[in-house]
Design a protein that fits this description.
The chain is of the alpha/beta class. Helix content is 40%, strand content 21%. The two termini are 34 Å apart.
Length: 390
Amino acid sequence: MPKSYTALKASENNAEASLYIHIPFCNSKCSYCDFFSVTDHSLMAKVLDRTVEQTARFIDYFGIKSIPTVYIGGGTPTSLPLPLLDKLLSFIGTLPLGEGSECTIEANPETITIDLIRLLSDSCMNRLSLGIQSFSDTTLGTLGRHCNSATALKAIGLVKEHWQGQLSLDLISSIPGQEVSDSIADIDTAISFRPDHISLYSLTLEEGTPLAQHYDPDSQSIDDNVWILAADHLEISGYRRYEVSNFALPGCQSRHNTRYWKLLPYIGTGAGGVSTLHDGKGGLFRISNVPDLEKYLESTDLICGAETEEIIGKSYIFEYLMMGFRMTAGIAKSDFAKTFGREITEVIPETIADWKNRGLAVDTGDSIALNKGGLLLLNQFLLDALSELE
């Protein structure tokens, strides 16, 4: 066992840690997706058994005593047959979940059935994240989604009728050929169901994906204003933006994702899962599970063939800035000082001063944050901060 793991085991900083479980299976692969997932389900049962085993070993080895949030993502977790999903959910129910823990599972519309909702309702899950992406059949075709608008509408109807937990809907905007009116129509349809939370992502054409390979900028335009105006429409409709791409009704922000953005400890299990733990020495330790089912199953050690990385010094500061400034609340000065022993205004004074002078950042006294205009230029802000750090 590497010395770094021994240090992590001895650290009390990870006694409370969130849990992410990666289920790398889908019924079909969307043309825009670059997440690790496979459509061959032949190893599904074996991979699930190994994931459950790894989760139990991580919790024991790293001394995790309380799990405030759980997130089952993928892939499509609900592509698991109900008996396998029941096995996973029953296992999670035996873990040291914190009082009032938030437990989320992702699903695609075509997997939603009454039997699935009943299974989820009888488990510890209390938040369902439904990947809609769009209600337009044309847009869904562009994205390579194997689901049409009618299926999506039926799925949400079933959820609203039979699900008692929170509901989050995922939408994608700025898709090739999409007009502002198309994205607004998607949002209007989504909010007609009054979900607790909506994620509105601006499509990124990831290198190597079928959509990026087939995208022709000469014939398929992307209007940069689509996402901006769609986001404005969400806020006008009562959904408060609390992060670059996330909007919620009051009190319904994703607690799990917020812990990511604050770099609080979490373990990620399953093939392709990622953990970020505090090393007890003022840095982070990242464990990235191998995104390969065969290799994940072949390994018998604690980390299942994972790659590891120590994040210390300026790298840690930059990652803290990169994640923290995604949130509309920005970074609390007291949290930064507690973490690094220095004031944030001493670490990147020129960047903060410049962006404040340009009307793109605000200092509330307790925190530093980018405003609405500044968030649109987040990448440039981070480049300025990185340059100053170096």
